Amino acid sequence: MAQLEKIFSRGLYRARRRIGESNIFVISDIAEGIDAAFRSVMENREQLKSYIELNPSYRFSLSPVEIDERLQPRLASLAASSASLANVGPMAAIPGTIADLAVESMLEHGCSVSVVENGGEISAVSSIPLVVAIYAGKTPTSGKIGFLLERSDFPIGIATSSASVSHALSFGEADAAVVVSDSASMADAAATRVCNEVRGEGEEEAIEAGLRTAKVIPCVRGALIVKGSHIGFVGSLPKIVKLRGAAEGIFEACLLPETLGT
Fold first, then answer.
1. How many domains, the chain?
2. Domain assignment of residue 104, yes or no
3. 47, 49, 133, 159: which has the fewest C-beta neighbours closer than 10 Å?
4. 257 CB contacts (<8 Å, ≥6 apart)?
């Protein structure tokens, strides 16, 4: 069983574990839900690894690939489907899809609070409000604002792509391109595409380019882009709130009302 730590007085469990390249953080109201999430991650990663060994083009493609649910493991086909809608390679949606499948497993175990973060991509279904910080590197807004997720927002997927923070391949210039969708899989793929399009002579021009792209990607609820000292958003986003505290600590204590600023 994963090592569990109770979060203050709300009777919730949290645990962090690195599984291969995946850095997984889980919050649940049921201890068994934590283990279910980690099992899901391990099983789906192994299935994907076996598939890629036989189909290496899936891993290296920067454009959508053929979807074949009969031959592909579920992780691969779901990621490929989301990536196709965003017009990016399938690996762009893998972290978010892993998070979605882990949450799905938690729900099957009866969890009322199911939150999985995989390297910054978040999938969540919760009966209580959550607060998630937005991290944008060394920009003035990094860790100072976040989303207040209320019951009407769930299920939700939130993904962030960055040209200045992440080690992932990016063709854009965003410090943070945050996309909100019904699933982390779709949010992940769309965030990659949006970040790629954040380019221009000035910060405002670059942000506008990214927001125009976000508007035309299917299944995107909304997007928020940070570049330098500028920020822009489009669509229907969760309530944006001011936060206080260290950016890294806000997510790990994302259920705490004292992280909210005035």
1. 1
2. yes
3. 49
4. 131
